[in-house]
Amino acid sequence: MSTTGVCITIVLAIAAFAGNWWWTDKSRHEFIRRVGDRVKAPDILINHSKVFAKPEIIQVTPNIYCAFGYGLANSIMLEGDDGIVVVDVMESYQVGQTVFKAFRQITKKPVKAIIYTHNHADHTYGAKAFIEDPANPPEIWAHQSMLQELQTWFYAMPILMSRSIRQFGVLTPDHINSGIGSKLKLDRNDNQLALVFPNKLFIGQERDITIAGMNLKLVHIPGETSDQIGVWIADQKVFLSADDVYEAFPNLYAIRGTPSRSLLDWASSLDKIIDLAPEHLVPGHTRPLRGADAIADMLTCYRDAIQFVHDQTVRLMNKGYHPDEIAHMIKLPAHLANHPYLLEFYGTIEWSSKGVFNSYLGWFNGDPVDLSPFTPDELAEHIVHMGGGVDNMILKAKGALHNNEYRWALVLSSYILRIDSNFREAKDIKAACLMALGNQQISANGRNYFHTTAMETLGDVDVRPGPQSVAAFINNAPLRTVFDALRVHFDAEACLKVNITIAWDFSKPTSHVSMKIRNAVVILRDRPAKTHDMLVTVVESVWRELLVNRFTKAASMSKDKFRVVGELSGLKKVMKCFDFN
Questions:
Q1: DSSP string covering 43-92, please?
Q2: Which of 42, 51, 349 is nearest to 181 (CA)?
Q3: Under CATH, which architecture does the 3-37+374-440 domain have?
Q4: With 0-12 CB in 10 A as exposed, 13-18 as middle and 19+ as buried, what is 260?
Q5: pTM, rounded to two decimals
Q6: 56-312 carries CATH number 3.40.50.2000
Q7: 569: pLDDT confidence band, cut at 50, 70 and 90?
Q8: C-beta separation of 501 from 473 below 8 A
């Protein structure tokens, strides 16, 4: 055996011995914790929690109040002559109730309007808590593009909710903060979808409205989302800036999963705010600011950092660099990198630059190796074979872990689990690496995602939307939104040969939907079908109930609940083509 071979054998033997010492520990979680605790959470992230020390109502001006620290986002109350306007309504009915009770300690004036700055759940899902008379709801304002944004969310709700739970650390016991708030108080089994769809929409860049004697200007300021709006109260020089700025580096790309965000639009939106020269700035997260000069300086640095990431990514992209290379090459200038509003507690430059690359060039990074790549399972088989098989790979993974090479040990253990998903030692190594890598993160998002995935690897948590959450969506979303969501749940493999047109006639209230299934594609129209193979007449609430039950229980589709022109058994067969698992 060569000298190199002897050295490798000795290293592996030491690693195996060290590994066996851990594997015999009575508690796997004790082992995971011990490895994770080799790396302590950065003090800077821990100290950042002081920003969200306690819930409080902050009085911005004599009639503007910000509910801060109650949940992930802020809710803002504008008190007018004979009523109030609530801007953003928290992430859940329960949190919304708490905030509204606090507002009610200030005034009992009725809610005249609600304004959604954008579609994100932490700004919209508590709406019902602020509506005192559901039969007579207030005006609910939003940009028209919000409807499409909400539909996109509902299409991908299972995966987006799962990844959001990871990003915000909803289930992690070692949660420190969420970067822009204390914690997202959202339950995957929440049965109360308190979102109420907007009933007042505007198109374009601005809209002047007068509510409760207050003159408000709604300003389109795309940033985190394309539907985002701010509110300008000119007579008080107050701007409500939504999520265009907060006390952390912005989420120019969110690891929970988002379409590419336009950094140039975001910078332009900040220019709009700077030009207004506000004396008070109330973000959708973190604390309000006051002082025209201080606000202008902060906004200028914020928008310059965003444009810097965009411009330098494109410069390096044009030189032919790989997105992973670019992500490690871009560094903010010192005066921006050290700015208190640009520390990477939330978004990171690494993730942001990859988002920019994708916005210009899409998924293909230019390397033909990735043009027709192996699937992850195929690649794992080759890597494990090259590494001498699973038994040898696990020794290498243990050695990497022993040497604190967490990223490499994570890669190796992940390959092993592709080959054998039940390999306990590989799961333990992977979870330990994820905990350690999470502890290295300044970004709360990164920490939370690593830690939650570690818990999933051990089987301790389930981040998928619970049945109650799905039921809440089905029971509360507009009917057409529910049907649109059905399209992306159609099981093409199981029902490739199904070709049928179903006319749905609903009552209480009256509406019509035509559903045509053709070549494993579901085509929908908001009108009675001119020709159809089957006619279904049903009360809307009954239909929602049956959909919740996924049409699999015999009692769910009894003839007393439906009037079907055609075979009921045929309808049952069609509806089983929609997969909610």
A1: HHHHHHGGGGSS-EEEEEETTEEEEESSSSS-EEEEE-SS-EEEE---SS
A2: 51
A3: Alpha Horseshoe (1.25)
A4: middle
A5: 0.90
A6: no
A7: confident
A8: no
